[in-house]
Amino acid sequence: MNAEDVTAGSEARVLVAAGGAGVLGRFVVVAAARAGWTVLVPTRRPDAARDVVATCADAPGTVHVVPALPDGGPGDAYDAVARRVGDLVPHVSAVVASLGGWRLGPRLLDLSGDAWHAALTDHLTAHLRAAQVYVPLLAGARDPVYVMTNGAAADVPMVGSGAVSVTGAGQRMLLDVLRAEGGPSGPRFHEVTVTAAVAGDDRNVDPVAQVRGEDVAAAVLGVLDDPGSPARVRVGP
Description:
- This protein has one domain: Rossmann fold (3-Layer(aba) Sandwich), CATH 3.40.50.
- The strands form 2 sheets. It has a 7-stranded parallel beta sheet, sandwiched between helices. Strands 7-8 form a two-stranded parallel sheet.
- Helix 5 links the parallel strand 5 and strand 6.
- Helix 3 packs parallel to helix 4.
- It is built from 6 helices and 9 strands.
- The protein is of the alpha/beta class.
- The chain starts with 13 loop residues before the first strand and ends with a strand.
């Protein structure tokens, strides 16, 4: 189903799933649609989200692809998506940001400037830009909630994935600052930390432990549904 087909009433629960076409994000999208959510999936590769939409064809909720491409207006692709979402639905109830991913490479002392910049852009900066454009869309929601997923590298220094460890730790502080800036009247900000490799992700080489994507998605939906959820939820074996 395309973005133009969105028909979310005033009582519908609307989720923006940033990174919803990715390895982990698609599990969140499917679980949310099966729980009755209207799910908007911003993506720079609309074709990559088609199988997710097809998987949810018989779900109580609906999934809609929102192309994350500049529309000629001010700002970048994130701003363009925010404008499209605002035009499509009367409100957004929640945001789940599953951005970044895994990368292997040399140790940090040998990492090139370009590789370091790419890691910052794809992980930490992507989360900042997503928060900047999607958090304002939560205004007026009954229980506005913003969830970031993170990985074990934020807790454990990973040799060969040092940039992911550094950006993951930075992502956690980013979330802490957003929570502090929002205060008691702001949205709920939560981190769902995946403490093992996501099963089926072939970017993980010989993982020590794995966790099912469905289990991560269940944890995310638990946070969305429970205002009393802790600020950080861990999922793993």
